[in-house]
């Protein structure tokens, strides 16, 4: 059979649409391709297909336009056989057929229409893959059963009892295996599905011969959110499902979901997805509302480029970062720099020079995020209450004429003197540490080894009277640094208070109005629990011990009276599936979230720093104008330039203090050149 040859599209606003012909059984798969004006999409009836390409080898025949052969991958071939109707045509859009994949220019042009194609669809078809005949039925059956349980108060109450506490240990892993298999399917991690399934269009999931409504799966995963221990025990990754649900629908701007208004933040959140072409990690989000409705004009002009010479991975990633940094708007706070997460970084100028020479055209400046890597979440998230730049937060960096050197002003705070090893996930989960037989809790070892604090007065280690270089108590500075200043805790509190009132709490400045005593209560409670000194203080000074025990008593009293805290309003502790979380658990949660794959450090003057895993002694800690947090830089002595190490929290400098010191002449402003 003669191979099918694509004809060029007639104009810049046309796409191709597939009419899938009816058929059953072993009848050949056939259809026709027609040009389609994208301006008419809102008024047409069609069903776009979302699927995983899988093995890229195209070995299956599709009869196109009557008598020509178009080769398909195994995945698409079986998807179309499953979705074709027995007695009537079906209008479908599928990228592998409707875009000439061999034409790089066309690919780049057609990508811009994908969001509209899925947004205006009357129905989205999702192909999860082939099935052996039992797995899909069991998985979808379990989801449907859970949906019924969650909608029935009596069944839900029994489910909650059976799946929390000690009762959870009696539940069989085999019962939840189908759900695990479902959430482990490759489709949930594919880059392009974020916009394909992330609109308001209704969708149906097809897995082999089974099918299920997409919203049913999402609603069940949403209800399972509060059953953290259940999901961990049975390894059910509901987060992947929740992440893609309506990701391309603008969120409530007054909650933490407002983070999604940032294009760079969305690229960061999608770092876990998989893309055959790494450039699609950027291009798959160009139809996102953060670009289309955002306030950054530079990003609006970013277009897909798959050309071999001009569209290399480093160029695509650098272009996106440069536009975010220089265009301002919703990409403020230097979030593009905060998204830089190096796995390794040269220690010397000689090593850096060798790396540039070896990588050649593949070299990426240190200030450009590599979206293929991930170490931890961004501390400088758009809704973060931190404002390290203070009154100078609106300044925007610039690029040199070649576009490879980022020029940005700021001040140097100090030089790193001591650095911990990278902190592992759950480093401050003291229950887990005890089970693993660790002799000394992480919170104790860092205090002694990095901060250089020693036991005195009969064994006292944590004493409120020990001063911090930036002012105040060293203990509070230490515990706040490890928890990113309690930012995540405060944001959860803000969202709770907003839900309990009709007001819009969009102003983030209130975070610094929370009394130190509240933060200290959480920190002290954790120190008491981690050191095992709930009955009698030894390592924890008596004054600090009393603050911690009082915080735990207040929480216990609040639980007994049915209030989040003693005042009857939502306080710092949060509600979980096991009831109110105690202050020590709340601090542990924030610290584990902030420190994973980061290091704790101390500077020469004694400032405490939470920084990227590649931070090293001799790196400088700076506040760069425009940034929400501080940044660590690595000096290149001969050239006078710097490598960007990454964002960092420096206690005492997160609320505009550096800008004030610079204005008074106590810190000297300088221009940093990042390469």
TrEMBL record:
Using the record's annotation, list all stretches that form the Heterokaryon incompatibility domain. 46-196
List where Basic and acidic residues composition bias occurs. 492-501
Q: Which residue spans traverse the membrane? A: none
Looking up Pfam families in the UniProt record yields: HET, Het-6_barrel
Residue numbers spanned by region Disordered: 487-509, 556-592
Database matches in InterPro entries: HET (IPR010730), HetReg/Transcr_Mod (IPR052895)
Task: Give the PANTHER family listed for this entry.
Answer: ANKYRIN REPEAT DOMAIN-CONTAINING PROTEIN 39 HOMOLOG-RELATED, HETEROKARYON INCOMPATIBILITY DOMAIN-CONTAINING PROTEIN
Name of the protein in its database record: Heterokaryon incompatibility protein-domain-containing protein
């Amino acid at each position: 059979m003669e191979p099918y040859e694509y004809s060029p599209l007639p104009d810049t606003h046309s796409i191709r649409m597939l009419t899938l012909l009816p058929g059953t059984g072993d009848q050949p798969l056939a259809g026709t391709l027609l040009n389609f004006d994208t301006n008419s999409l809102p008024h047409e009836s069609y069903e776009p297909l979302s699927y995983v390409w899988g093995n890229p080898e195209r070995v299956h025949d599709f009869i196109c336009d009557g008598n020509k052969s178009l080769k398909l991958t195994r995945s698409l071939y079986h998807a179309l056989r499953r979705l074709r109707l027995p007695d009537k045509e079906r209008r479908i859009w599928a990228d592998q057929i409707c875009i000439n994949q061999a034409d790089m220019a066309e690919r780049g042009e057609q990508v811009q229409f994908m969001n509209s194609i899925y947004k205006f669809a009357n129905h989205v078809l999702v192909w999860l893959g082939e099935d052996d005949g039992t797995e899909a039925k069991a998985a979808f059956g379990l989801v449907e059963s859970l949906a019924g349980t969650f909608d029935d108060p009596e069944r839900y109450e029994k489910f909650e009892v059976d799946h929390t506490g000690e009762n959870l240990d009696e539940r069989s892993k085999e019962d939840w295996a189908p759900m695990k298999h479902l959430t482990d399917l490759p489709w949930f991690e594919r880059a392009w599905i974020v916009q394909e399934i992330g609109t308001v269009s209704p969708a149906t999931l097809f897995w082999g011969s089974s099918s299920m409504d997409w919203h049913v799966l999402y609603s069940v995963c949403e209800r399972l959110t509060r059953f953290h221990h259940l999901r961990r025990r049975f390894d059910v990754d509901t987060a992947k499902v929740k992440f893609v649900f309506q990701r391309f629908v603008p969120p409530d701007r007054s909650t933490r979901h407002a983070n999604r208004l940032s294009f760079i933040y969305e690229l960061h959140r999608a770092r876990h997805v998989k893309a055959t072409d790494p450039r699609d990690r950027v291009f798959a989000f160009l139809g996102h509302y953060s670009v289309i409705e955002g306030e950054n004009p530079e990003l609006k002009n970013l277009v897909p480029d798959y050309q071999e010479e001009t569209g290399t991975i480093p160029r695509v990633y650098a272009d996106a970062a440069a536009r975010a940094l220089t265009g301002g708007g919703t990409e403020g706070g230097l979030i593009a720099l905060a998204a830089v997460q190096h796995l390794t970084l040269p220690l010397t100028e000689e090593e850096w020079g060798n790396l540039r020479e070896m990588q050649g055209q593949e070299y990426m400046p240190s200030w450009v995020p590599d979206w293929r890597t991930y170490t931890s979440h961004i501390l400088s998230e758009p809704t973060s209450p931190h404002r390290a730049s203070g009154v100078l937060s609106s300044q925007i960096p610039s690029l040199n004429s070649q576009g490879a050197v980022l020029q940005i002003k700021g001040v140097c705070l100090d030089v790193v003197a001591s650095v911990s090893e990278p902190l592992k996930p759950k480093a401050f989960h003291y229950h887990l540490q005890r089970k693993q037989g660790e002799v000394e809790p992480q919170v104790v070892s860092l205090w002694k080894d990095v901060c250089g604090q020693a036991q005195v007065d009969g064994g006292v280690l944590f004493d409120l009277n020990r001063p911090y270089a930036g002012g105040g108590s060293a203990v509070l500075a230490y515990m706040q640094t490890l928890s990113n200043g309690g930012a995540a805790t405060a944001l959860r509190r803000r969202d709770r208070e907003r839900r309990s009132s009709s007001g819009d709490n969009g102003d983030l400045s209130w975070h610094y109005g929370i009394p130190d005593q509240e933060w200290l209560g959480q920190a002290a409670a954790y120190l008491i629990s981690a050191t095992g000194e709930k009955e009698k203080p030894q390592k924890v000074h008596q004054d600090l011990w009393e603050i911690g025990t009082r915080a735990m008593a207040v929480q216990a009293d609040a639980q007994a009276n049915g209030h989040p805290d003693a005042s009857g309003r939502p306080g710092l502790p949060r509600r979980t599936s096991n009831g109110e979380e105690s202050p020590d658990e709340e601090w542990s949660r924030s610290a584990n979230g902030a420190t994973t794959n980061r290091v704790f450090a101390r500077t020469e003057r004694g400032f405490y720093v939470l920084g990227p895993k590649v931070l090293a002694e001799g790196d400088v800690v700076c506040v760069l104008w425009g940034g929400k947090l501080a940044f660590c830089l690595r000096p290149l002595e001969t050239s006078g330039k710097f490598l960007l190490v990454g964002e960092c929290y420096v206690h005492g400098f997160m609320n505009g203090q550096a800008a004030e010191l610079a204005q008074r002449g106590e810190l000297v402003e300088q221009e940093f050149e990042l390469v």
